[in-house]
Amino acid sequence: MLISEIEELESKYNQGKEFPQAFREFLFLAGENNNFAFDDLGEGLDELQNIAKEDMDFAGQKLDRPFFAFSVLDSMYSVILLDETEEDPKVYLLMPFLAKGGSEPLLKVPTGGFKENYTFTELVNESIHRVKKQHFFLK
Question: Hey, is 78 helix, strand or coil?
Fold first, then answer.
């Protein structure tokens, strides 16, 4: 992704402030077509923000913190919170429909098959590890 495209996203979704360094570097190196299952819709990160906000509205949910979604699976969004100051931000799950039903909070740290409190870099590294492991077993 070009720096100008990243800056456009920052302007639109982060009040012109730069994204955290680890996320910004990822966008520059991997872009929107990154093969790590981020931006699963294939419609681009900009459109993913619109879909996440539409799901939040449809589910009657509101998050009072700025976020940026980078992946979605079954209306559960992997997000970073833009008001956190770490250069390698924590990753959260945003789950508007599960929160509406009361079975889960709106925002939580991923658990289960994931290590708790993944940073964005750790998530990328884990994704690379899984792709390499799958590729090894397919040979």
Answer: strand
Confidence of residue 7 (pLDDT cuts 50, 70, 90): very high
Cα-Cα end-to-end distance for the chain:
31
What are the extents of the domains in the chain?
A: 3-138
Q: Is residue 6 classed as helix, strand or coil in its secondary structure?
A: helix
Within 10 Å of residue 55's Cβ, how many Cβ atoms? 20
Tens digits of residue pLDDT in 14-58: 999 999 999 999 998 876 655 555 555 456 888 999 999 999 999
Query: Token pair for residue 16?
Result: 């012109």
Across the strands, what pairs with 107?
94
**Structure tokens that stand for 125 in this block:** 């590294």
